[in-house]
Amino acid sequence: MTSASVARRIEGILRTEAPQVLGALVRRFGRFDLAEDATQEALLAAHRTWMDGGVPDEPRGWLIRVGYRKLVDILRSEDADRRREQEWLTSDPRRADAGAPAPTARDDSLELLVLCCHPALTETSRIALTLRAVGGLTTAEIAHACGVPEATMATRISRAKQTLRKVDARFELTDAEELTERVTDVERVLYLIFNEGYAASTGPELTRVDLTAEAIRLTRMLVSARPDDAEARGLLALMLLMEARRSARQNGDDLVVLEEQDRSAWDSELIREGTRLIETAWEERAVGIYQIQAAIAAVHANTMKSAETDWPQIAALYLWLERLEPTAPVRLSRVVAVSRAFGPQRGLALLDDLDADRSLTGDPLTASRARIVRAHLLDELGDHEGAQRGFAEAEEFATNDVEKRYLADRARR
């Protein structure tokens, strides 16, 4: 085995075990900020040691023991005479055993996800902390994904950890109602991570495969921890059905819209899995926003000819979704579905009504999307001059390079 392949194997193990090591240390010490630092040091030590000496039989146990020693060293450095450490160890009888926590089969992923999505944190901090603590991404990778400088992201993550410490955030939740509320926040964060990967808001790439893959991986962990959560299954189904279309969304450097995609290039295995998931989730009595979006994605994914798409069904699903999630992106998507089902004139009338009642130009992203939808409808109705202006205006708002090229090309045409 070459050194490169050994390094890849070690990196894979460390990526898988990192959340479990962090969870064990947080559960034992109650200090997320210090446990995260100790975990990172343990991972670095493992990479150095295992490259020469090989991976131990129980890598998780090795990492937890090293992480424990690193964390104790950090605590001792905070208080040279060790009073702080002693006070901490004796403050709870369960902590009296000074030995490193033994590795168990327990999966701490859900607890970590819930902790990273603490209500005291902002939404951007939740995303960053989730990607760092549970996803194992480096600060540089997270900064790139979020479109901010690495120093800015490092500060954001540091402040998030300080906030958790100030509010004495607990690792374990015993209140079922609180857990349910927090899991809703977890699902929201995973949804946002996937969306940023599927349609990158800035930069030269249309998609960020590292983010979509990480969102899917973390959502699988959530479904595994909460198999009876229909919304979690709906969220995973949505991600899989959307990801199935990724390879067909670009032709070289050019964006390919849904109607023009080569559907034979869609990933049939992901479609089958996503469809099975949404079919089982749909049987639940309560239906949520991710299940509805997954149902819409399933209609597209299981239609092999664009002309055969059941747009009336999709329009009805978007109306249902709008009642649960009355946001501008959902309303614009309903406009598109209505225009496909009942004609562009009907779609344009609905767009005018929504814009008058709800103002679809409140922020740059929404304004860009609204102009794109209007330009497509005007083009279909034969108002090519109006469509050209719409595409050109939308290009000014776009921040993704692939999308900007697409809009410029549509304006020229």
TrEMBL record:
Lineage, highest ranks first: Bacteria, Bacillati, Actinomycetota, Actinomycetes, Micrococcales
Protein name: RNA polymerase sigma factor
Organism (species): Microbacterium luteolum (Aureobacterium luteolum)
Region (Disordered): 83-104
InterPro entries per UniProt: DUF6596, RNA_pol_sigma70_r2, RNA_pol_sigma70_r4_t2, RNA_pol_sigma_r2, RNA_pol_sigma_r3/r4-like, WH-like_DNA-bd_sf
Keyword list, A-Z: Sigma factor, Transcription, Transcription regulation
Biased composition annotated in UniProt, kind: Basic and acidic residues: 83-97
Domain DUF6596: 182-281
Name of one Pfam family that matches: Sigma70_r4_2
Family label: Belongs to the sigma-70 factor family. ECF subfamily.
Keyword Chloroplast among UniProt keywords: no
Key word rRNA-binding present: no
The RNA polymerase sigma-70 region domain, residue ranges: 15-79
Residues spanning the membrane: none
Residue ranges of domain RNA polymerase sigma factor 70 region 4 type in the record: 113-164
